[in-house]
Amino acid sequence: MTYALHVNGAEHHVADGWPGESLLYVLRERIELPGAKNACEQGECGSCSVLVDGLLVCSCLVLAESVSGCEIETIERHSALSRVQQAFVDAGAVQCGFCTPGLVVAIEDLLDREPEPDELTVREAISGNLCRCTGYGRILEAVRRAVADPRAAVPPTEPS
Amino acid sequence: MTTTRTQARAPRVGESALRPDGIPKVQGRFLFGNDLWADGMLWGKTLRSPHAHARIARIDVTPALAMTGVFAVLTADDVPGSGVFGLEQADQPVFASGVVRYVGEPIAVVAADHPELARRACEAIVVEYEVLTPLVDSQAAITAAAIHPDGNILRHLVIRHGDIDAIGDVVVEGIYEVGMQDQAFMGPESGLAIPDDDGGVQLFVSTQFVHADRDQTAACLGLPPDMVRATVAGTGGAFGGREDICLQVHVCLLALRTGRPVKMLYSRDESFVGHVHRHPARMEYRHHARRDGTIVKVEARVVFDGGAYASTSSAVLANACCFGAGPYRVPNAFIEGWAVRTNNPPCGAMRGFGAVQTCFAHEAQMDKLADALAIDRVELRLRNALEPGDTIITGQRITGTAPVAAVIRACADAPFPAGAELDPDSESAPMLLRPGGAGRTADARHVTRALGFAVSYKNLMFSEGFDDYSTARVRVEDGIATVHCACAEVGQGFVTLAQQIAREVLDIDEVVLAPADTHVGSAGSTSASRQTWMSGGAVEGACRLVKAQMEADAAAGTVQRVYEATFEHHHAPTQRLDENGQGDAHVSFAFAAHRAVVDVDRDLGLVRVVDVTTAQDVGRVLNPVQALGQIEGGIAQGVGLAVMEELVVDQGRIRNASFTDYLIPTALDMPTVTVAALIEEPEPGAPFGAKGIGEPPTISSTAAVAAAIRAATGRAVDRVPVRPDDLLF
Ligand code: FES
Ligand code: FES
Q: What range does the domain containing B528 cover?
């Protein structure tokens, strides 16, 4: 099976793919974008979060070939640190970091839609992203910092 | 362009230095074991037993081997070295042969050129079983027919302290249970093995203890240890669940057999059977006290279910018993502990390591005692709080710091954070923050708020005579320091501390960390709250050696271009507990107090944890932000055990091996954690006076939440996790 995927502004050709391969698997194993993580591969943890045509999805639940005409954005979309990424580093929101790419993608998506969310909104927005290390305290602090960041918005997507 | 904040002076010890791996982790560029890849790489997959106890009548691998794209299928017959491994006793087979003892026990492994093909090849292997009755009752295991040549008793430990016949004016009793908790680290087990030309192998593995992996793997491969070159791969959390061997031997066997790199990566359901869990425990307690509240004696009998293999059960049981009376002056004690083998999933290390279970019991007992004596619950704890110089129930005198009263007072006296007041305006609370949360079931009129309080203590480092040490090599060249230490970074932030310590001692801003691997001496395990003390001390020691040499040469005018030193840091020796459970078995202790506020929906038996406030004995804070992260994260795991986390095991089979069914706290479940105080009394003998801080948050937080639920409902709450049924029927 051969098809193309449009990821972070670049075209990738997938040759000899198995029909059952998830978007997560193909990103990680076939086009060398391992930023999206695979903590459960059953839609429960959010570590694999990516945007498909602007919609936040668990890439483990999406068949790769089915999004061949779509615009896919992963954690690797930024060439410079976004304000959310910077806030995660500064606030101590990263421990093992396995949940981090998924959380960053989910929080950037939230702030795109709602630039100044209250804490409950943030908690609900990231309740599909499991983190086992932090207890979420520093992650919520990172969101507060990102909201307060003078940079008006997430930097525009740049090709990696 | 990558933005890094250049700091004029990089942070030293005591400052909130930023993680050196923070930027690659937020960018998705940090490579975990899961992300490793090599040219020509094959995928390994494990065939596991579907039975808790069975004889293996026949294994036929030929259908799997015949599949195109399958390169190797290995069973017990293919293990060239030791067929068994284990951290404390080598009793666990690399592959089951003859008999399987738990659901999920490995039978065979496959290497294929696609993970899906490897999975199908596993399905094609024919295994005929004669199913046996599983031994699943831990109490019965003590006298049942042995299910393993080493017997069913992993350890029987009795602590006899003082006058074991002493009697108090008031006696309270209880029977308590703790369910099986999973570490549920986010990064599933993963590893990559690459065969070397000399017959050796390189192993990159997500782990807590790379030298133990190396030694056990080499023994099973029949190779000298130095032919297994092991490196800690990026590790997505651990919490005790990566101390034992999982896929290390399997992936190396496949690489050596096929002559190609092989990667193994567990799926989540496989991860739930692929590592050890927190021991389920049954604990019978009796406390004796005088009318004035002075504790006279603690009696307990605890049974820990070790599952099919030994892992660290022996040491877990020792902790459960040693700290089983809590951080109180207890002049007389009789504590009998059993760790037994069953056909349940193997249990071993998890954050808190035995102290969690008995803390739940002894703190419930303290509340009962306070109520029986009509003494305030906090006051009773203060009256009995251990102090420096006191003797604990193992006969050991506390020679270091023991700010028990300080953590109790700071935690109990802390103001309630906004929204967690004891007389809430429940009607106005958002639905999402009521019991039942997103289910939107709570009716504010049926919600009761209450608080609970608990205190705990635990040892730091390995105990009972274990030769516990860490090694660091430090090199200074052209004004840059390189630290080489095999300490596994699993998220806790040792990488940050290592840089801070090297900067502090050497007064050099640029500190580079070499990969954590077996090309330097062992750093021991990232467990037992020990790495800040042990590997922090090793880095400090190596830096001091380098610095002394640099200063001597500077004074002599013989300055060199390169300085290098290696330092092995051992802690003070400890003793094995004697036949009465007495002895100086521990190096140092850490104490914590937790106060939980909960809302309980009395109609539906649903609980929401509203606030957890804590005070913790930390010796000295080396990195405030990281300390906070450890405390918040540790409390999340304690809250999880209190109200939601349990592996449901039925006849040896885990019924909920997925994140759909094994729930861990989400951002909506976790309350804000309030740190009332970090008690900084520098610990003698500890590098920079710092105590380990990783485990105490997990220990008494569970007990505090349980106490709060008890207070809200009037129910016994003698088992965690608390289930709605426990509060309704
Ligand atoms: S890996 Fe996709 S939700 Fe967990
Ligand atoms: S930082 Fe480890 S899972 Fe979130």
A: 469-570
Map out the domains of chain A as residue ranges.
3-74, 83-148
The average pLDDT across B320-338 equals 98
Tell me, what CATH number does B90's domain have? 3.90.1170.50
Q: Is residue B212, in this structure, part of any structural domain at all?
A: yes
Q: What mean pLDDT is predicted for residues B324-340?
A: 98
Size of interface A-B (CB pairs under 8 A): 195
User: Domain ends where: B274, B292, B320?
Assistant: B274
- Residue A38: predicted pLDDT: 98
CB-CB under 8 Å, B27 with A89: no
Non-local CB neighbours of B51 within 8 Å, separated by 6+ positions:
B100, B103, B129, B131, B132, B134
Confidence of residue B70 (pLDDT cuts 50, 70, 90): very high
Q: Are B550 and B477 in contact (CB under 8 A)?
A: no
- Give chain B's mean pLDDT: 96
Mark whether B448 and B473 lie in a shared domain: no
Query: Residue B481 pairs with which residues in a beta bridge?
Result: B476, B511
Shared domain for B614 and B683, answered yes or no, is: yes
**Assigned CATH class of A83-148:** mainly alpha
Q: Which of B238, B490, B633 lies closest to A135 in CB terms?
A: B633
Cβ–Cβ gap B18/A28 under 8 Å: no
Domain count, chain B: 3
CB pair distance less than 8 Å for B239 and A132: yes
Positive or negative CA dihedral for B352, B353, B354, B357? Answer: positive
Q: What is the pTM of this model?
A: 0.97
Average pLDDT over residues B155-181: 98
Which of residues 422 through 441 in chain B touch A, CB cutoff 8 A?
Answer: 430, 432-433, 438
Contact B237 A88 (CB under 8 A): no
Q: What is the pLDDT of residue A150?
A: 77
The residues in B 214-253 lying below 8 A from A, measured between CB atoms, are 234-239
- Mean model confidence pLDDT for chain A: 94
Indicate if ipTM > 0.95: yes
Class level of CATH domain A3-74: alpha beta
Classify B696 as helix, strand or coil.
Answer: helix
B635 token code pair? 């409390």
Question: Residue B546 maps to which CATH number?
Answer: 3.30.365.10
Cα(B265) to centroid(ligand 1), Å: 15
Yes or no: say if B129 and B310 are a contact pair by the CB < 8 Å rule. no
State mean pLDDT over A144-150.
93
